[in-house]
Amino acid sequence: MYVNCQDEFLGEVLLTASAKQTMFWEGQDSAYIFQLRSGIVRGVTISEDGERQILAFFFAGDHIGLPITQSYRFSAEAVTDVTYVRQTRGHWNYALAESCLKDGSMLRCIGAEQDPIYRRGMLLGRQGAVTRMAAFLCSIIDRLPQDGVQFDLPISQQDIADYLALTPETVCRSLKRLKQSDIIAMPAHNRLVIHDRDALERAAQSRATCS
User: Does 100 lie in the same domain as 140?
Assistant: First the structure.
């Protein structure tokens, strides 16, 4: 259920989306731009042969749905409960023009939306499932909510598998390998502890083809 907390006339609307809710659909007219304030969103597209693919995960602070084209290039699905600010395309374009006359800071929003998609391409180029998994964890842990030494990891193994072009079984085995090496621990399926960040980063750079 959406909750409108601000007058849309001002150009921004604070909204919430519940987990599994679609915020916008691929191919829909890109009438709004969204800035995430909390929660995690996955960017999903459907290939020509009907295969569902996860292109990116977005976190608090990210802008999504930028009007680079007339329609959204992916669907945005809430992984967790999400709060976000919605702006009209016209308001965003006006703010962009104003920014270009000053410091151009808003131009970084465009690169920031593309970065997770670009990063996925780099991850898929890694050899070996364990290497991909380690690289994936390195890429997101600083964006995850943290409680002491534990991180919330609400992304399912199925979603991780879709993102890394692996099977859920391979994702499970890869996490087990990292746990056996005492690099990480998972006291619960949605909780993550990093025991050795340096070792995790080394595993992410490994050329081994282990799976």
Answer: no
